[in-house]
Amino acid sequence: METMKKLITTSCANYIDGKCLLFDRECPLISGGEYRGKKIPASDCSCTYFEKAVLPANKTLEAVYYGIDTVLNKKCKGCGKGFNSVSNKAMYCGDVCRKSANRNSHRKYNQKRAK
């Protein structure tokens, strides 16, 4: 749930200063809502803008949001962990592994060249 809040606060265009511009109050996905005097938890609230515009950017969170099992479809060449890749060319789970592999590749090239 914490990563969902982070996605909302950083990526949602309608979330400004802790409030939702669509509802003109606190975001229901973060603080929950109220209906006829009864408190509704944030996990039971939904927002069509968030579902259509913000959530598709993060496929893993989208699967968690809709309750779909995530299948890690690739294995990182750097660290060996599984990850979901957006393209068929992805070999590394993130920037850290990619940069590390790039550094090792340059190191090998420079050692070979020095001989």
Order of helices and strands: HEEEHEEHHEEH
Biggest β-sheet: strands ordered side by side in the sheet: 1-2-3
The amount of beta strand, in percent, is: 5-15%
Beta strand count: 7
Poorly predicted segments: none
Mean pLDDT: 86
Helix segment tally: 5
N-C termini distance: 54 Å
**Large-scale geometry:** elongated
Number of domains: 2
Structural class: alpha+beta
Protein name: Cysteine-rich VLP domain-containing protein
Organism: Robertmurraya kyonggiensis
Pfam families: Cys_rich_VLP
Question: How are the secondary structure elements laid out?
Answer:
Blueprint: H1 2-11, E1 15-16, E2 19-20, E3 25-26, H2 28-31, E4 33-35, E5 38-40, H3 48-54, H4 59-66, E6 74-75, E7 82-83, H5 95-114
Antiparallel strand pairs: 1-2, 2-3, 4-5, 6-7
Overall description:
The protein folds into two domains: 65 residues, no CATH class; 41 residues, no CATH class. The protein is built from five helices and seven strands, in the order H-E-E-E-H-E-E-H-H-E-E-H. The protein is elongated. It starts with a helix and ends with a helix. The mean pLDDT is 86.
